[in-house]
Amino acid sequence: MGKDAFTPQKRVTSGSLPTTTTNGGGKYLPGRVVPRGRQIKKTFNNIRITILCGFVTILVLRGTIGVGNLGSPDADAVDQSIIEETNRILAEIRSDSDPTDPEQPPDAEINPNVTYTLGPKIENWDFSRKNWLESNPEFPNHVNGKPRILLLTGSPPNPCDNPIGDHYLLKAVKNKIDYCRIHGIEIVYNMAHLDKELAGYWAKLPMIRRLMLSHPEVEWIWWMDSDALFTDMVFEIPLSKYTNHNLVIHGYPDLLFEQKSWIALNTGSFLFRNCQWSLDLLDAWAPMGPKGSIRDEAGKILTANLKGRPAFEADDQSALIYLLMSQKGQWMDRVFIENSYYLHGYWAGLVDRYEEMIEKYHPGLGDERWPFVTHFVGCKPCGSYGDYPVERCLRSMERAFNFADNQVLKLYGFSHRGLLSPKIRRTRNETVMPLEYVDQFDIRRAKH
Amino acid sequence: MLIERCIGAYRLRRIQRTLRHGKVTVICLILTVVVLRGTIGAGKFGTPEQDFLNIRDHLVRKTAEHRRVLEEIQPQQQQQAKTISDSAQSSGSSSTSNANSYIEFDINTILKDEGPEEKPDPSKPYSLGTKISDWDEQRSLWLKSNPQFPNFIGPEKPRVLLVTGSSPKPCENPVGDHYLLKSIKNKIDYCRLHGVEMFYNMALLDAEMAGFWAKLPLIRKLLLSHPEVEFLWWMDSDALFTDMAFEVPWERYKDSNFVMHGWNEMVYDEKNWIGLNTGSFLLRNCQWSLDILDAWAPMGPKGKIREEAGKILTRELKGRPVFEADDQSAMVYLLATQKDLWGSKVYLENAYYLHGYWGILVDRYEEMIENYHPGLGDHRWPLVTHFVGCKPCGKFGDYPVERCLKQMDRAFNFGDNQILQMYGFTHKSLASRRVKRVRNETSNPLQVKDELGLLHPAFKAVKLSS
């Protein structure tokens, strides 16, 4: 009884949730049959509240985490566009396309019937050069008692396929700059393809010829690959040995003439005297080079005639070997095949022995005890893939670089903290009389 | 019903009401916590945004880092793919799939430092090295006893060593090393033409003086180790030679020891932090230079000293933003405050661009080609175009990447054209890497002279003994 009177009030006051607002509570019987109308209303209210809550939730979430593209904060969008723009620029820089030639006509295929030439035939170069040197005594071909040498090296004009490739090109250039500064040699770093036909490894030929003709004061032109590092900073090429020769190249005569091997010589590091003979050899060398069908056909001939050569287009090394083999009488008397020191040193047999060399020997030997040049054939760090595992190649290149750099840093009293470390440590304390050490450690003063 | 009979309907309703209240309270509490977490975060429990990102990363497995603006892009492999023996290569996303692939190789996995780290003594004040007081005497004695290493290689031409450098580790930007390579080629070309020796530094001689200050210990060490060098020419790695024919007027500096590009009024009167530029300067090899290096160095040591010094410099110099002490501001401050000590031997050159700010030069190259010629060195044909602020080796620069890199290409080609014309070639355009012939080959190459006379220039002629 009291219960009944109580209930409606309770019902009304406890109706904080709108779902329970009712009128005429007296008629309302909890737990009993609920009239249809009420039920509908109740459902309606439930739905309304659900929608309201859902709405509030979405608002809150949107404010906190955003909903992706539908109105996220500005910063993300700006970042994204910057990233896309930068990627586009980097892709453009690294591609081979030329921004100024949108409609480049396709390169005309060279006529295979016409023999390719590096340039107009020059007949009396020795005579012209001698005259020039006589009338230009301020540009002599000997400097400080030594013949003038020009070191030529280069790399393609576009970025490497991988950033690490460019980094090692940079280190290789530093290595060459150091050697050439110590020995008074000039450097030409070529980044241009002078001749569309002779691209790739053949690009050195037109450049060598061009430099010879433009610089009569240069006595020797030394080509060096970009993947070859100097590892003996003290050793100097004994040019007096070659007074009767015009081409100095590393190789093995037995491999060349008896075995006819395609690696009998190495054209990664060689010297050409600036003379008529060299121009003639370059002219005889070039015909296998022009890219396209000529190079492919020549490649087949070379593979057939040289032992161990895989099948690929003609490369300059195989072509030179073939030329010297087949025209032995014409050329070989002026070619010096050098193997008493490592004018080119194949890296695989050398790089693991650096610690042993440091312990037992000293710079200045140039041979297997302390190699003059360590040449990373096959590593191809500028491309995407090499012939050897990347870790081995890069580790070895880093070691060779530091091995050589230690010899340069010795003058300054520093050394690398290990052959794999870019950091250096002091090996000699500072002093008030630095010139004592200069006298002792400067490589140039030791030689001259 | 059972409960109702136990407790009583009245109490049951009260309990139900309490429960309902409780439910409402809990829901409101949760909502509040969520909103607060969304707005101010909850410490290590993170924010909903971080949750969302974590979940998304977990599900999608993205490897791109969004904070890096300059990302490594997957290189085009089509051309190089044919050199690989096997064709079963993955898209290059993991280097473990092929040990011969250079893609995504991390050089840090092979670099290793041996031996102890050198720790400086914190109690001793920083110094570049043992104080030397008689360097002029020592040096002139040495030069006398070594006549084969003269400090002058021509009647007016001193022996110059150009010094530049970069980090021994690969650049963070994927094309940064390529631009360093182009920059060094550019310097090699100028130095070959002008008989200048080069030193490319890739070693940090003193860990205290890292960053822009690294040049100070290096310069001191080189001056002391190369007494035959008369002038040391420091040049930043982001500065390019754009006038290959211009020879520095050495005789103008016969009474000066330190030549920088700048303006006297801006340094001494205005104390403007860009009143001079230390990206390209000449320093004579003498006692005075050692002394000024010692006076310059104290603001350099990294850490607290550099920070504090930075604040002083920002306060004292006009227009300087807030950042740690840099060598340029420190030099402005040193000269402005100690003019009587140093000013007489410092030459602030502005008749030609020993340093040329790239922003005002690079758009005018075509106009220069049309109206002027190399050999002027000034605003008509700048000697040096210096890409301050571009930082191509780093992740972020002060300028948009596209402008910087494209303009560096143009400046490089502008300089390279002067080298290529010696051999009869030129770039197809200032933006192009390709070259075209402009002079035909001839059977009489020695009759042909290059337009600029750079093949055998006067400044390269050797001293003829009479």
Automatic annotation (TrEMBL), chain A:
Protein location: Golgi apparatus membrane
Keywords, alphabetical: Glycoprotein, Glycosyltransferase, Golgi apparatus, Membrane, Signal-anchor, Transferase, Transmembrane, Transmembrane helix
Native source species: Trapa incisa
E.C. numbers: 2.4.2.39
Renumbered residue ranges of the record's region Disordered: 1-30, 93-113
Record-level GO BP terms: xyloglucan biosynthetic process
Broad class of enzyme this protein falls into: transferase
The organism's place on the tree of life at top rank: Eukaryota
CC annotations in GO: endosome; Golgi membrane; trans-Golgi network
Short name of one Pfam family: Glyco_transf_34
Regions crossing the membrane: none
InterPro entries given in the database record: Glyco_trans_34, Nucleotide-diphossugar_trans
Organism classification: Eukaryota, Viridiplantae, Streptophyta, Embryophyta, Tracheophyta
Gene Ontology molecular function: any one: xyloglucan 6-xylosyltransferase activity
Family designation: Belongs to the glycosyltransferase 34 family.
Name this protein carries in UniProt: xyloglucan 6-xylosyltransferase
Membrane topology qualifier: Single-pass type II membrane protein
Reaction catalysed by this enzyme: Transfers an alpha-D-xylosyl residue from UDP-D-xylose to a glucose residue in xyloglucan, forming an alpha-(1->6)-D-xylosyl-D-glucose linkage
Annotated Polar residues bias: 10-22
Automatic annotation (TrEMBL), chain B:
Keywords tagged on the record: Glycoprotein, Glycosyltransferase, Golgi apparatus, Membrane, Signal-anchor, Transferase, Transmembrane, Transmembrane helix
Primary location class: Golgi
UniProt-listed Gene3D superfamilies: Spore Coat Polysaccharide Biosynthesis Protein SpsA, Chain A
GO cellular component: endosome; Golgi membrane; trans-Golgi network
Catalysed reactions listed for this entry: Transfers an alpha-D-xylosyl residue from UDP-D-xylose to a glucose residue in xyloglucan, forming an alpha-(1->6)-D-xylosyl-D-glucose linkage
One term of GO molecular function: hexosyltransferase activity
One GO term of the biological process aspect: xyloglucan biosynthetic process
Annotated membrane topology: Single-pass type II membrane protein
Pfam family, one: Glyco_transf_34
Record field: transmembrane: 21-40
EC number, as in UniProt: 2.4.2.39
Main enzyme class: transferase
Region (Disordered) location: 72-99
Positions with biased composition (Low complexity): 74-99
Localisation per UniProt entry: Golgi apparatus membrane
Family, as annotated: Belongs to the glycosyltransferase 34 family.
PANTHER family hit by this protein: XYLOGLUCAN 6-XYLOSYLTRANSFERASE 2, XYLOGLUCAN 6-XYLOSYLTRANSFERASE 5-RELATED-RELATED
The protein's name in its UniProt record: xyloglucan 6-xylosyltransferase
Lineage, uppermost ranks: Eukaryota, Viridiplantae, Streptophyta, Embryophyta, Tracheophyta
